[in-house]
Amino acid sequence: RKEVEQDPGPFNVPEGATVAFNCTYSNSASQSFFWYRQDCRKEPKLLMSVYSSGNEDGRFTAQLNRASQYISLLIRDSKLSDSATYLCVVTETGGFKTIFGAGTRLFVKA
Amino acid sequence: GAGVSQSPSNKVTEKGKDVELRCDPISGHTALYWYRQRLGQGLEFLIYFQGNSAPDKSGLPSDRFSAERTGESVSTLTIQRTQQEDSAVYLCASSWTGNTEAFFGQGTRLTVV
User: Fold this and answer.
1) Which of A40, A85, A98 has the highest number of chain B CBs within 10 A, making it the mutation to test binding with B?
2) Is B71 exposed, middle or buried (0-12, 13-18, 19+ CB in 10 A)?
3) pLDDT band at B57 (very low <50, low <70, confident <90, very high)
4) B97, pLDDT greater than 80
């Protein structure tokens, strides 16, 4: 089983749609959680951290369920500019090893 | 520098040759990571450093791959006797600690012909 698993997609959605990405991780002792975004042929960049209580940043909402070892990202009112690959990221206990999921590709169309 | 710097940005090498990829992390970042990304694929973890130590080398694909870090700063990833399957973008990232945001360099695109 992979340490971090994501649905690879692609997700093809119209502008204005709401889309949700899911991610599961295998190490119950994992410590920190993030969502990164990677544009085509670019390096990944932090989108948002994921907190136990859930957190929101504008149109983006992240949730963490430690019991189920599950992380989610919800994008509301999708924009064309949201088209990218979204990477689920988990840091193991001790904060030393950062593991990236393979990413979920999103295409938002007009 | 202001960000993570990798060099060279592009490298074309002949099969069987050795290559050395360099990463200059953000000053003061203790954690440094190397990842590989093949075309159209996700990030593949290779190795990370905490200071100059590499607690986990399990991601290195074969003994042709090695990495070192000195002065808690610059890191080099060396690939010996390159093979065509080594062709990929090699990304380096650094962070204050493993629990904080990782900043990536723009990568080295390696092509083995």
Assistant:
1) A98
2) exposed
3) confident
4) no
